[in-house]
Design a protein that fits this description.
single chain; 192 residues; mainly alpha; Arc Repressor Mutant, subunit A; Tetracycline Repressor, domain 2; 2 domains; 9 helices; 66% helix; globular
Length: 192
């Protein structure tokens, strides 16, 4: 129940951030849309700014939904490409590029660890599983460790998101990723 309330607050806040902009979304907007009390909001979050640390929750929720679309008959490389395309399309359609650019920039200069880089996230566990399975099936390279392969994958994903933000969201992130990402992660594919 408590995790459902927290999830509802997070999902509502990010929807409002996208619709109204972060600056124009108030805590009262989030409370009203979520149907909770002010005390309940403050039980989970100290401030609206504190909610920015929940981007990893939003993205992990999307990865959990997408993980059910992965099938055993899909090559591991194709699974990675499909995940990238769908999550980047989700970001394009649901997260304001200005807010994402701001969040990325704060990750570089802040003193505490980033929730986006937390290796216990569902995102990283899913990538590790896909890459381990792909290595065992001979589809992905074993020249890099699983950990190095995951880092390589996530680095290439962030590169595309950063470019999209730097270009003011002028193109569809998912469609551009569909074209570029397979070439960017070709180093993960087992050379025959």
């Amino acid at each position: 129940m408590a995790s459902e309330i927290r999830t509802r607050i997070i999902e509502t806040a990010w929807r409002l951030f996208h619709e109204k902009g972060f600056g124009d979304t108030t805590i009262n907007d989030i409370i009203r849309e979520t149907g909770i009390s002010k005390g309940t909001f403050y039980y989970y979050f100290r401030s609206k700014d504190n909610m920015l640390d929940t981007l990893s929750d939003i993205l992990d929720s999307e990865y959990q939904k997408l993980s059910s679309e992965l099938t055993d008959d899909m090559d591991a490389f194709d699974q990675l490409v499909m995940l990238n395309y769908k999550v980047h399309s989700f970001i394009n359609d649901n997260i304001d590029y200005r807010l994402l650019a701001y969040l990325y920039s704060t990750q570089i200069v802040k003193d505490h660890s980033s929730s986006l880089l937390d290796r216990n996230r569902f995102y990283f566990r899913l990538l590790e599983q896909i890459i381990e399975d792909g290595r065992m099936k001979g589809e992905l390279t074993d020249e890099l460790s699983v950990s190095e392969s995951v880092k390589y994958y996530s680095l290439e994903e962030r590169a595309l998101v950063t470019d999209w933000c730097m270009n003011n969201g002028d193109y569809h992130l998912g469609e551009y990723s569909k074209k570029m990402f397979p070439m960017m992660i070709m180093g993960l594919k087992k050379q025959k």
